[in-house]
C-alpha cells in the first residue's frame, strides 16, 4: 500500500519555477519526502552531469545546508490555513499578506528583533506598520 502522506504532485511547481527563472537550478534542497525526489527526477535530472541539478535531500535541522527557513514558512501557512479552515485559491491575497507580515512587520529572533526588511535597510516608519504600508500603497503615484 502506498504512503499517501507524500502524494502531492510537486512536478508542476518545479516546472513553473523553472519557467519563471528561465533556467534550471544548480541545486535543489528538499526534505526527505519521496514526492520531491520523484518530481526532481522527472523535471530536473539529466543524463549529462554538467547540466544536472544537484538534489540534496536534507532532513537534519543543523548543518551547512538545510531547508529550515522554508519549513518554518510552511508551518506559518499551515497554521493560518487551519484557522481559516482552508485557503481556497492558490492566488489568495492571504498569502501575499502573510509575506508582507513576515518580511516587514514580524520581528525575527535570528535577526536580533529586526524584520528581514530592516535587516536589508528598509524601514517602515510609524507605530502601526500595517497602516503605513496600506497608506503608502494607496497613494496615487505622480
Short description:
With 142 residues, this protein is mainly alpha-helical.
Explain what the structure shows.
It is a single chain. The protein is mainly α and 142 residues long. The protein is built from six helices and two strands, in the order H-E-H-E-H-H-H-H. Strands 1-2 form a two-stranded parallel ribbon. Strand 1, helix 2 and strand 2 (54-57) form a beta-alpha-beta unit. The protein is elongated.
What is the strand arrangement across the widest sheet? 1-2
In what range is the share of β-strand residues? 5-15%
Query: Helicity, in percent?
Result: 40-55%
Largest sheet: 2 strands, parallel
Low-confidence stretches: 1-5
Shape designation: elongated
Written as H for each helix and E for each strand, in order along the chain, the element string is HEHEHHHH
Based on helices, strands and strand pairing, what is the structural class? mainly alpha
**Euclidean distance between termini CA atoms:** 62 Å
Q: What count of structural domains?
A: 2
Mean pLDDT value: 82
Radius of gyration: 19 Å
If helices are DSSP runs of H or I spanning 4 or more residues, what is the number of helices? 6
The total strand number stands at 2
Amino acid at each position: 500500500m502506498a504512503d499517501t502522506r507524500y502524494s502531492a504532485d510537486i512536478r508542476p511547481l518545479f516546472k513553473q519555477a523553472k519557467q519563471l527563472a528561465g533556467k534550471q537550478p544548480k541545486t535543489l534542497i528538499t526534505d526527505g519526502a519521496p514526492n520531491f525526489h520523484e518530481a526532481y527526477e522527472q523535471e530536473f535530472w539529466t543524463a549529462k552531469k554538467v547540466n544536472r541539478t544537484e538534489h540534496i535531500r536534507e532532513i537534519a535541522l543543523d548543518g551547512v545546508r538545510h531547508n529550515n527557513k522554508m519549513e518554518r514558512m510552511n508551518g506559518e501557512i499551515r497554521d493560518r490555513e487551519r484557522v481559516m479552515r482552508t485557503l481556497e485559491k492558490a492566488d489568495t491575497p492571504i498569502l501575499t499578506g502573510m509575506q508582507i507580515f513576515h518580511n516587514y512587520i514580524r520581528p525575527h529572533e535570528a535577526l536580533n528583533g529586526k524584520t528581514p526588511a530592516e535587516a536589508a535597510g528598509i524601514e517602515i516608519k510609524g507605530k502601526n506598520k500595517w497602516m503605513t504600508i496600506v497608506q503608502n500603497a494607496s497613494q496615487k503615484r505622480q
